[in-house]
């Protein structure tokens, strides 16, 4: 069977940033779809550059655990993996619909199916909804609630905002929540003013980040007025200007993310149907009180 390599950013400053990568890799590994499952990082070991040398399989599916298409997924990862003949046009994407490109990795003689990032896969919309279910402990959450999908936002990469708006639109089309909006940290509309953009008394806020860190644990809670000092913590939900804010934290910590990793591999041709069934059963949101 082939191998799966999950590539993520990692961090020298936040030791917990790699936790979701290892957790989801363990979930996929336990489902038995691949002979080997490896993790690799830009800022930690094992590195992008070395990871393919640790894999014995001659066929490898590489899935970026990144939120959007951009500098890392289009330039850094293919370069560090030494993917011959890579060109971003092979994805044929407008910024939210990258699929897969099959290439050869130089110096290791392996066939690499290089997949688009998890953050732009359609299944990520379901993870956002499940994140709302998890934070409210209500598998039927929706009626009477607003949902804010939050991203970093940046003028340097327009695809960053595209991913957030794409999933906000998809969740809105589900017609489940009374209101759905895309908010950002560094561009308008800003998450600081979340209560200005929703009429619903209850608003679930889900950051489209892979891991909890400085932005999700410190900046966003303080910016929304959940607390004056993140070190003092806050309640869930927290009353802010006449609204109850249910802050969910990084979407990448939701167990269902393992499903999206497998969906990416499946779209690239991997035989993972049985593993998908196993993962979905293991990561389903329990009913309140279970």
UniProtKB/TrEMBL annotation:
This is Cobalamin (Vitamin B12) biosynthesis CbiX protein. InterPro entries: CbiX-like, Sirohydro_Cobaltochel/CbiX. One of its GO terms (biological process) is cobalamin biosynthetic process. CDD domains: CbiX_SirB_N. GO terms for molecular function: lyase activity; metal ion binding. SUPFAM superfamilies: Chelatase. It comes from Halococcus morrhuae DSM 1307. Keywords: Cobalamin biosynthesis, Cobalt, Lyase, Metal-binding. Transmembrane segments: none annotated.
């Amino acid at each position: 069977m082939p191998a799966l390599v999950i590539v993520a950013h990692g961090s020298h400053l936040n030791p917990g940033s790699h936790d979701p990568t290892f957790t989801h890799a363990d979930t996929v590994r336990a489902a038995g779809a691949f002979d080997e499952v490896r993790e690799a990082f830009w800022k930690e070991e094992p590195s992008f550059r070395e990871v393919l040398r640790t894999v014995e399989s001659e066929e490898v599916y590489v899935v970026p655990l990144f939120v959007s298409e951009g500098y890392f997924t289009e330039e850094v990862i293919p370069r560090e993996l030494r993917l011959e003949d890579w060109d971003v046009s092979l994805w044929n994407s407008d910024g939210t619909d990258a699929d897969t490109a099959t290439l050869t990795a130089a110096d290791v003689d392996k066939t690499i199916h290089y997949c688009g990032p998890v953050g732009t896969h359609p299944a990520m919309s379901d993870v956002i909804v499940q994140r709302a279910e998890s934070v409210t402990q209500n598998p039927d959450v929706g009626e009477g609630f607003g949902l804010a999908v939050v991203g970093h936002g940046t003028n340097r990469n327009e695809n960053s905002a595209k991913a957030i708006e794409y999933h906000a639109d998809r969740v809105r089309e589900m017609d489940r929540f009374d209101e759905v909006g895309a908010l950002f940290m560094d561009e308008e509309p800003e998450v600081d003013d979340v209560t200005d953009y929703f009429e619903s008394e209850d608003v679930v806020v889900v950051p489209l980040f892979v891991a909890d860190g400085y932005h999700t644990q410190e900046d966003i809670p303080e910016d929304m007025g959940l607390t004056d000092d993140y070190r003092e913590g806050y309640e869930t939900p927290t009353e802010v200007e006449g609204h109850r804010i249910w802050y969910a934290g990084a979407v990448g910590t939701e167990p269902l993310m393992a499903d999206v990793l497998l969906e990416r591999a499946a779209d690239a041709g991997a035989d993972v149907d049985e593993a998908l069934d196993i993962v979905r059963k293991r990561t389903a949101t329990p009913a309140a009180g279970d």
